[in-house]
Specification:
Elements: H1 2-9, E1 14-17, E2 28-32, E3 38-48, E4 59-62, E5 72-80, E6 86-93, H2 94-100, E7 102-103, E8 107-110, E9 126-127, H3 130-142
Parallel strand pairs: 3-5
Antiparallel strand pairs: 1-2, 2-3, 4-8, 5-6, 6-9, 7-8
Length: about 140
């Protein structure tokens, strides 16, 4: 669902491909049709199943599959389970993931506040809709 929304939000500029095996920490490959470059996304999702919104949501990333790579990003999304609409997204370059995570022996846990006005350590990575995610990724390709 996230990959399809990303393609639509980019106006068709971005294409998404799913690797046959995801043991490399990549859930979706994103290809830019203009620059002919690609990058990997690891996508983590949280679904709100009721009207209640917790103070934080949690996304866990395995330390054995994660790596610092200029062409790898973590995309965490919070989705309304009733409407399937994106409520918040955090797009984090791989080099920054460890710095904003709670490090454990086997995983890195990220715990952003899903509220739009949050000023937590994840606020610089927060995007409010899929168009902003697409714009950010196309800026990476254009750089």
């Amino acid at each position: 669902m996230v990959a399809s929304q990303l393609m639509l939000a980019s106006g068709g500029r971005l294409s998404s491909y799913v690797p046959l095996v995801d043991d490399d920490g990549i859930d979706v490959m994103v290809h830019d049709k203009l620059t002919h470059q690609s990058l990997g996304l690891q996508i983590k999702s949280w679904t709100f199943l009721s009207e209640a919104r917790p103070q934080t949501v949690q996304y866990d990333v395995g330390r054995t599959t994660w790596r610092d790579d200029a062409r790898l990003f973590l995309l965490c999304v919070a989705i309304d389970g009733q409407t399937a609409q994106l409520e918040a997204a955090w797009l984090i370059a791989s080099r920054d993931v460890a710095a904003v995570s709670n490090l454990r022996s086997r995983k890195m846990s990220l715990t952003p506040n899903p509220r739009a006005n949050s000023k937590d350590r994840y606020a610089p990575y927060r995007l409010n809709d899929m168009a902003a995610v697409a714009d950010t990724l196309t800026a990476v390709f254009d750089a």
